[in-house]
Design a protein that fits this description.
alpha+beta, Jelly Rolls, 2 domains, 4-stranded antiparallel β-sheet, 52% helix, Homeodomain-like_sf, HTH_AraC
């Protein structure tokens, strides 16, 4: 990254550190702040439609196509719909910590800003890679957004302006197609409908045909829309949800691996253990035991 981008992200990281203890103030800006002083195990998080950024340090996220993504301040992630993410902090920065933020995307604001820009011709946009490239303009806008944590009295006037500027910069980035998807209700609602059904009935023996029938579209069309918006096929998305909920049940509710696997629809303990180990790097029982000891 160039010096301007690095400096803006460093300023944003410092402001984020100051306000880790004020989640309500951050929420009024659509922000969720994160900080840790040590690497973490693989964790499951459900991202809302948002911009996710690492301001300091590095993380590793599972990816359906490449198997994994290592990223830091040079990159950002756009999630146009709710996305199950399995990731871990792999490196703290020079200041000894990992600092991140998520900023909730407002579809109405995205649509408003996008409506004032020329749209590319249909079919002219290739599906972007999973991570976007952080530009100086994006970093500056993020810095100003986080800066409103220091001056909440200014937020009613400046937040609408900064939000629109940040959306503009994202629409000018290599992730523009995914930002547009956050505002395209007809397209995103198809995916959201399936996500809501998956979440409500994880144990159902879903097939791609079942999922496509919910929206009266073909399996191929549903798969393409899921990939465009989430980077995952519907069945890979469902697997993420199932593994995340199973891990929560073991670590939070004290369920056995067999109980957790059955509750989310796994019929084979061996299949569950294989998928779980691929995601979290440990067999389910050992992971639960380590978490209870830690």
């Amino acid at each position: 990254m160039d010096a301007r981008t690095t400096a803006a992200l460093d300023r944003a990281a410092e402001k984020t550190r100051r306000h880790i203890g004020t989640p309500r103030r951050a929420e009024t800006l659509g922000l969720t702040l994160g900080r840790t002083t040590a690497p973490t195990p693989m964790l499951f998080v459900r991202y809302p439609p948002c911009l996710a950024m690492v301001l300091h340090g590095r993380k590793h996220s599972l990816d359906a196509d490449s198997g994994g993504l290592d990223w830091g301040p040079e990159s950002f992630l756009i999630t146009p719909v709710k996305l199950p993410v399995i990731a871990r902090v792999v490196e703290t920065g020079a200041d000894g910590d990992f600092v991140s933020l998520n900023w909730r995307l407002d579809p109405a604001i995205v649509a408003e800003v996008a409506g004032q820009l020329p749209r590319p011709r249909p079919g002219s946009e290739a599906t972007p890679r999973r991570l976007g490239t952080t530009t100086a303009e994006i970093a500056d806008a993020v810095d100003r957004l986080v800066g409103l944590l220091d001056t909440p009295e200014d937020a009613p006037v400046l937040l609408p302006l900064v939000s629109r500027e940040l959306i503009l910069r994202l629409l000018q980035s290599d992730q523009a197609p995914r930002v547009h998807a956050a505002a395209e209700h007809a397209r995103a609602d198809t995916v959201s409908t399936v996500i809501d059904h998956f979440t409500a009935d994880l144990a159902r023996p879903w097939t791609i045909d079942d999922a496509a029938a919910l929206c009266h579209i073909s399996p191929a069309t549903l798969t393409r829309r899921f990939r465009d918006i989430t980077g995952l096929t519907p069945m890979r998305y469902l697997k993420r949800l199932r593994l995340g909920e199973a891990r929560r049940a073991m670590l939070t509710d004290g369920w056995t691996a067999t109980q957790a696997a059955t509750s989310v629809g796994y019929l084979s303990a061996a299949h569950f253990s294989r998928d779980y180990r691929a995601a979290y790097r440990l067999p389910p029982a050992r992971d639960a035991q380590r978490a209870s000891v830690g």
